Amino acid sequence: MSSLLREAERCIANQNSYTALNALISTLHSSGQWLDRIKEADTRRAQGRPESRLDGRLVVIKDNICTRELPTTCASRALDKFTSPFNATVVQQLEDAGAVVSGKANLDEFGMGSHSVNSHFGPVKNMYRSRNAEDLSAGGSSGGSAVAVATEQCYTALGTDTGGSVRLPAAYTGIVGFKPSYGLISRWGVVAYANSLDTVGIFGREVSSVRDVFDILNQHDPRDPTNLSPDTRSRIGDQFTSPPLASRMTTNPLKIGVPLEYNISELAPSVRRAWSRSLNHMLQQGHSIHPVSLPTTQLALSAYYVLAPAEASSNLAKYDGVRYGNSFGGDHYDPQMNSYLYARTRGEGLGSEVKRRILLGAFSLSAGAIDNYFIQAQRIRRLVQRDFNATFLANHPLMPRRLNGDDVNYKSSQAQVDIMICPTAPSSPPALSSLVGEGANRSPLDAYMNDVFTVPASLAGLPAASVPVTDESTDSLAGVQIIGQYGDDALVLKVAEMLSNKRL
Fold first, then answer.
1. Residues 304, 297: contact at Cβ < 8 Å?
2. Is residue 410 within 8 Å of residue 399, measured between CB atoms?
3. Running DSSP on this structure, what letter comes out for residue 52?
4. 179 included as an active-site residue
5. Is there a domain that residue 194 lies in?
6. Does the residue 288 lie in any domain?
7. How far is residue 419's CA from residue 394's CA, in Å, rounded to a whole number?
8. CA distance 400 to 395
9. Which of 116, 141, 181, 186 is an active site residue?
10. At residue 61, what are phi and psi to the nearest 5 degrees?
């Protein structure tokens, strides 16, 4: 039996063994199609012409990314019968590279949540448990994808990251989660939550597998208007692969930034130790550490929870039971009952968190509130981006160099750095009992606070990765986040490889 087939059978066995974790909504292996595809990949490898490093490997897709062979439900009652007539671009790219889609992963409904508990199919459970044997959160919204990778139910998985939905689950489950620069990976066929923030992200047990997937997906797609053009990609590549920045990928020591605003009093001791040990490890490798200030990032979370729900309220308006989504207003459409049909369909088809965000977004876009909320949040977003641009040594490759005939200087007088290292989440994963059921004692605001370290990079569109760091003194895991300048994805993955799975 080939190694590919053994790996696939182990993944399928794990899918059957870990059903209690509720990571997957649907699977393909019952049809047997996966076996034929892996045998074909085996033949190509034996002939020395594999499609890619992913050829014959099983991958899992978050269930808000369209697939032709498996339903796409967004973990919502409103879509639980929907099967897409096409593959999303990212799914087609993986299949063209020989990867085998083996399942769709559970998530927070429409990607709205931080713990993967807001699902029509029930919450995702972390494979780790607390010391008193309580089930723990897997993070969200891509918790199913993260658990599938962490328990070896697949080789790698795709998620989506709007404000931290790949990095947070990666931190909670002890794997690598990578959010590329906004616009590098196609969003065509991804069910939209917030168009200006949504990014397809990648999970892997090792940075090398994440890089393999990124190399396949990092292509121009003319069907996605937010996807970067070939000319823009060339301009970005020229900046980061030419002197003086190119030398950072070889022997030159890096300047590591430590954002002072991320050192909050609420930081859990285990997370603080992981952060400190990671920085000490980089020092021992010859790199230098520099404190930096990102003052506007303290407002980023508030701005995000205005902007993202505002875009969501617009994107989800189409799920009315007539044009999109399941109808809960009866079998026959009656124009005289429009308001009743819409209200019942959205009231019964959408979960409480989705309805909360739609209402919040609709309010912030209303005529009486838009200036005080949405417009102000957009200004904060621009200031967050300015703080990052002032701190990184590399220029933002898409920002104008001249304005009205004058040179534009974005840099501050503080130490300029190549990369930043900070925590991914302020604490370890909470117990599921505190999030759902009769024992739930956390408000939605508590859940939103988990995104406090991941949202700034999302608002600025920057590449960021979460890697697991083991505290050798306590054998506990924490996620450490690496953030780079826009387009500097290769350096983010390089530093992630330096830190990932190290016992520090």
1. no
2. yes
3. S
4. no
5. yes
6. no
7. 10
8. 10
9. 141
10. -115, 130
Which one from 116, 119, 142, 165 is the annotated catalytic residue?
165
Enclosing domain of residue 159: 4-238+424-497
- Known catalytic residue at 165: yes
Would you tell me how many other CB atoms lie within 10 Å of the CB of residue 294? 24
CATH for 213? 3.90.1300.10
Residue 219 located in a structural domain: yes
Return the structure tokens found at 284.
């021992």
Catalytic residue, chosen from 52, 62, 181, 428, is 62
Q: Please list the pLDDT of the chain residue by residue as tens digits (504 residues).
A: 688 889 999 999 999 999 999 999 999 876 567 788 888 998 898 888 989 999 999 999 999 999 999 999 999 998 877 889 999 999 999 999 999 999 999 999 999 999 999 999 999 999 998 878 889 999 999 999 999 999 999 999 999 999 999 999 999 999 999 999 999 999 999 999 999 999 999 999 999 999 999 999 999 999 999 999 999 999 999 999 888 888 888 778 999 999 999 999 999 999 999 999 999 999 999 999 999 999 999 999 999 999 999 999 999 998 887 777 777 765 445 555 555 677 777 888 899 999 999 999 999 999 999 999 999 999 999 999 999 999 999 999 998 765 555 556 667 666 699 999 999 999 999 999 999 876 677 777 777 888 999 999 999 999 999 999 987 666 678 999 999 999 999 999 999 999 986 655
**CA distance readout (Å), 78 to 101, 110, 254, 311, 346:** 24, 10, 49, 19, 8
In the chain, how many domains are there? Answer: 1
Q: Is residue 446 part of a domain?
A: yes
For the question of residue 62 being annotated catalytic, the response is: yes
The 10 Å Cβ neighbour count of residue 306 is 23
